[in-house]
Write a structure and sequence with these properties.
The chain has 186 residues and is mostly helical. The chain is 51% helix and 12% strand. The chain is built from 8 helices and 3 strands, in the order αααααβααβαβ. α1 crosses α2.
Length: 186
């Protein structure tokens, strides 16, 4: 508030208290109040100034009203309809190398001859004496907290990673074997 506005309010109050005739400052104050505009809030990231397509804004409104389970169903149905593969969960794994595109005729002729490129790693069991080492390795490998890593190891057999390239999966198996764990590659 400016000083003049504060003075005008003070004078207007005094004038109203002392007489029934409004003073010039009371008139000024009433005019200021009538024409005052509320401050505009800062623009937020999700509030766009650009006009959206009404069709898209309708879809966004419908999606924002979905429950968590309905949203999960929506995501899975969109993935299946648009042929979007599931991304491997856990850790900061390097992306899988893209498989070379082979002609369709070759795939039909010899599907068994093609070698599997991506594997699923499963922690089957571990040596009880090396449990702390296994927990530490799982923690660093999957990016879990210590408590979650302990629960993960104690619930063995459990799937560790999915969609892992052969070279990386062999390194993980060797590391876990050296620590006293048994990991399988499927």
């Amino acid at each position: 508030m400016s000083l003049s506005y504060t003075c005008a309010r003070c004078c207007a109050r005094k004038a109203c208290r002392n007489s029934l005739i409004p003073s010039p400052s009371a008139v000024v104050l009433a005019t200021l109040r009538r024409h005052a505009q509320p401050p505009t809030p800062p623009m937020r990231r999700w509030e766009s100034t650009a006009s959206l397509n009404p069709k898209i804004s309708g879809i966004v409104d419908q999606i924002s009203q979905l429950t968590l389970l309905e949203t999960a169903d929506l995501v899975s149905s969109l993935k299946s309809r648009l042929n979007i593969p599931d991304m491997p969960m856990g850790g900061f794994a390097a992306p899988a190398p893209a498989a070379p595109a082979a002609p369709v005729e070759v795939e039909e002729a010899a599907p068994a001859a093609q070698e599997k490129m991506l594997f699923t790693l499963t922690l089957k069991s571990f040596d009880p004496a090396s449990k702390p080492k296994i927990i530490k390795e799982i923690k660093s490998m999957l990016g879990l907290s210590l408590v979650d890593s302990k629960k993960f190891v104690e619930s063995a057999p459990k799937q560790m990673k999915e969609g892992v390239p052969k070279e990386e999966s062999e390194k993980i198996i060797d590391t876990m074997k050296a620590l006293g764990g048994v990991v399988t590659m499927d």
